[in-house]
Amino acid sequence: MQGFNKYYPPDYDGEKHGSLNAYRGKHALGDRARKIDQGILIVRFELPFNIWCGTCNNHIGMGVRYNAEKKKIGNYYSTPIYSFRCKCHLCDGWFEIQTDPKNTRYVVTSGARQKDEEWDPEENGGFAIHDTDPNGGPVDPLAALEKSTDAQNHMNQVQIPRLEELQMLSDHYSVDPYMRSKKVRQRFRTEKKLDQARRAADDTLKSTYALPEELALTVESEDSRAEAHKHWEKERLALEVREKAKRRMVGRPPETAPTASSRPSLLHKKLSAGPPGSAISSLRARILENTARHASSSLGGIGPHRTKVLGNKDIVFRKT
Ligand SMILES: [Zn+2]
C-alpha cells in the first residue's frame, strides 16, 4: 500500500529534481505506466459487445472488464485511434479491439470474433443509414459527365451573367461619389428652403390671428383650399338666412350699414387675395371687422347673434 504522506529525503533538491517522482525515477501513474516506454498504458477496459475468444472459443459477455494495454496506433483526421489489447481470462490467448472514429464504433481486429448484434434499420423496415463515403460505390461515367456539363452550363448561363450584372451595378453606384453627394445635398437644401418658407408663413399667420403657437396648420393644397371655401360658403349662406329672418322680425330693410353678412366675405377676400405675409392687409381686415361689429351693435338687436355666428366660424383659412 502506498503511503499518504510524502517523505522528502535529505538529499532531495526541489530545484534539481523537480518532483519526488522524478527523484525516484517513477511515473505518476505508478505500475500502470510500466510499459510507457513502448507507448502503452494499462487501463481498465470493458467489452462493448459479446465476443468469442479466438483461442479457447469461449463466449465472453459484454461488460466483462480487463486490464487492457491501451496504445495509440493512428489518427482518423485529428482523432486518435486507440487499440486495447486484452488477455482472455479463460485461457492464455490475447485479443485486440480498436476504436473506429469514422463509424463511432469499436471493432475486433484480432484474437476474437464479434457477435453480430448490430441493429440494421433497413432490415427492420426503417431507412438505410446514409453512406457518407464519397468514394464508395461504383461511379457511372455518363452520370458524372452529365453532372459536370450541367454545372458548366449553370456557370455560363446563370452565374457569370449574374456576376457581371453585380459588377455593373457596383460600377454604376460608385463611379462618381462627389457628383452623387452634390446632387443629394442640393436636393436637401431646396427642400429645407421650402420648409423654412412654409414655417415662416405659418408663423406669420399665427401671430396675425393670435393663434396658439402649437397649432398645427395643414399643408395647403387645392383640395384643402376648395374644402375651406365650400365650408365658408355654407356658413355664409346660413348666416344670410338668419340675418334675413332677424330683419324681418325687426322690420328693417336688409340694406343698412356694412352688415355682418358682408363682413365674412370681406374678411375672406382679405385673407385669400392678400399677398402672403402681408400684415397690413390682415390688419385692415381686422379694423373692418371691428368697424362692422361696432356698427351692428350700435344698431342693436344683432350683436349677440353675430358673436354666435363668429363662434360658428371655426375654420381657419390660410393665406394664399
Ligand atoms: Zn480464451
Characterization of the model:
There is one protein chain. By secondary structure, the protein is α+β, with helices and mostly antiparallel strands. Among the domains are: 14-114, no CATH class; 141-175; 176-215, no CATH class; 218-246. Helix content is 46%, strand content 15%. It contains eight helices and eight strands, in the order ααββββββββαααααα. The strands form two sheets. A five-stranded antiparallel β-sheet has the order 1-4-5-6-7, with no helix packed on it. A three-stranded antiparallel β-sheet has the order 3-2-8, with no helix packed on it. A hairpin with a 6-residue loop joins β5 (79-87) and β6. α6 (262-273) packs antiparallel against α7. The termini are far apart. Zinc ion binds at residues 53, 55-56, 58, 88, 90-91, 93. Zinc ion (ZN) is lined by residues 53, 55-56, 58, 88, 90-91, 93. Residues 113-141, 246-278 are annotated as: Disordered. InterPro entries: Saf4/Yju2 (IPR007590). Belongs to the CWC16 family. This is Protein saf4.
Brief summary:
Among the domains are: 101 residues, no CATH class; 35 residues; 40 residues, no CATH class; 29 residues. The chain is built from 8 helices and 8 strands, in the order ααββββββββαααααα.
Looking across the biggest beta sheet, what order are the strands in? 1-4-5-6-7
The computed structural class is alpha+beta
Please report the number of helical segments.
Answer: 8
Helical fraction equals 40-55%
Percent strand equals: 15-25%
SSE topology string: HHEEEEEEEEHHHHHH
Q: In this structure, how is the largest beta sheet organized?
A: 5 strands, antiparallel
Please provide the count of β strands.
Answer: 8
Taking Cα atoms only, what radius of gyration do you get, to the nearest Å? 52 Å
Distance between the termini: 110 Å
What does the overall shape look like?
elongated
Bound molecules: zinc ion
Low-confidence segments, given as residue ranges, are 257-276, 300-314
Average pLDDT reading: 81
